[in-house]
What does this fold into?
Amino acid sequence: MGLDRKDLLGIQDLSIDEIEEILTTAEHMEEILTRPIKKAPTLRGITVANLFFEPSTRTLNSFTLAEKRLSADSINLSAASSSVLKGETLLDTAKNIQAMEVDVMVVRHSMPGSPHFLAKRLKASVINAGDGCHEHPTQALLDIMTIKKNFPSFKDLKIAIIGDIKHSRVSRSLILGLKKMGAKITLCAPPTLLPLWLEPFGVEFEYSLEKTLPGKDILYILRIQKERQEESFLPSLREYIKNYSLTYEKLRKFASKEVLIMHPGPINRGIEIESRIADSEYSLVLNQVTSGVAVRMSILYLLTQRKLYGSKD
Amino acid sequence: MNIQFKDKRILLDKMEMQRTIERLSSEIIKDNPDIEVLCIMGIRKRGDILAKRLANILKKTTSWEIEVGVLDITLYRDDLTIYGPKPIIGSTYFPSSIDGKEVLLVDDVIYTGRTIRSALDEIMDYGRPLRIKLAVLVNRGGRELPILPDYTGISVELGEKEEIQVLLKETDKEDMVKVVEVKNGIR
It folds into this structure.
C-alpha cells in the first residue's frame, strides 16, 4: 500500500496503487495552486537540488515552482554553468551537492539510467526528470492526471500516440503508465520512427494517420525532434508534415467529435500539429502544464515524508 | 501494529450530543447579535461534519447567511516529523473569499491545540478574516499552546492512557462521545 520508496525513477517499477496515491495527493495539491497565497509550509527545511544536464524550460520551472509552493529550499544546477565543464564526473557532482545536506535531487541527463545510477549511490532521494531516450515519469504522471480529470475510467479508453516515438522518453513512460491503468494504445508514426521492439508492451501499430484517427478518445501528439533530422529518419520534414501533421481538416474528417488533444511540449506549430488545433477547445496542452506542478508537488511530498518517518522496514 | 482500545465510559449519547450541539449554537447566536455572514470552517475529519450540523441549526434559527467550508491541516502540521504513519492528505475547501468575514472554526476535540494552530495558519494563508472564533465539542486537558475555545460542548479531564473517541453517524454509524483506554501502542 502507498508510496514507500526513496526514489522515483520510472513508471516501470510503480504499482497501480502507487500511481493512484500520487494522483490523489496531486489533486489535493492542486487546490493550493488556486489559493490567493499559493504556498503551504509543508516542506520547510527540505532542500532540493535540480540537476539539469540537458536543456529544459517546462520541467525545470515546473519542479522549481512545485518546490517553492511547498516551501522547500531549492538550487538549480545546469551543465552549462557547472564543474561538469571542468571534467567532474556525474557522481562527484552529485556527491558534492549531497554533502551540502541536500535531501532531494531532481535529475535530467542525456544518458539513460543515470538517475538510477545516482539513486543507488546517494542517500538523497532521486527523481528522474528525463534520462535520455528511457523514461520521463513525472511527465507521464501529469498526463495520466490530466486524462483522469476528463474521463471517468481508463478501462477501454482509446489513446493514439502519434509522432517521433523512437526518440521519445515521454512515450515510453506514457505507454507503461497507460497500460498499467488499462487503456488501449495505438502508436502511429512512419516506420523509421516506430520501433518494433515496443510490440511486447501490448500496443497496436499503425502507419497511417487517417486510419489511426477514427474512434480515439485522445490523440497524444509528440514533438518532431528537428535536431535529429540529420540522422535521416525522415526523407524530409515536408513529407512528414504532409502525411503525419495533425491538421484541423484531418481532425474534423476522421476523428471523433469529442476527441481531446495532448502534447508534452514544446509544440512545433505547423509541423506535428496545426496551430489552430493547439489553441482549440480540443487541446488539453495547458491543462497538462498545470497538472505538472501539482504532480511534482505530490511526488516531492510523498518521497520526503517517507524520509521523515523512516522506511517501514 | 494496530492500537487497541477498551471502552471505559460514555460522555455523550446520541440525545446528549444533539442537545450539546443545540446549546453550542444558541451560545453562538447570543454571543454574536450583529452577524450577517458567518463562514463555518470544520477541521477534517469530523470537525467538518459537526460544522455542517451547526450550520443546519443556525440556518433554521437565524437570518444569517451561512457558508460552510472544510479545512485539511495535514500540510500545515508541525508533527510531520514525529508521528507515523504517513498522513493522507485531504482537500481544503473555502466556500468563498474570507476577507473581512466572521469565521467560526469547528473541531470535535481540542487537546494540545496544535491542530488549531495549523488551522489558523491555513486560514491566514487564504485571506484576512475579521475575526476567528473556535467551537469544539469536547475540550480535554493537555494544552501545549495558549489556545482556548470560545464555545465548548463538554470539558473533561482524562487519566493516563485514556483517549476521547467521537463517533458521528455520518462516518461511524452512531452518535456518541466516549472515553476509551489505550490497550497497547503509544497514543
About this structure: Chain B has a mean pLDDT of 89. Chain B has one domain: 14-81+90-156.
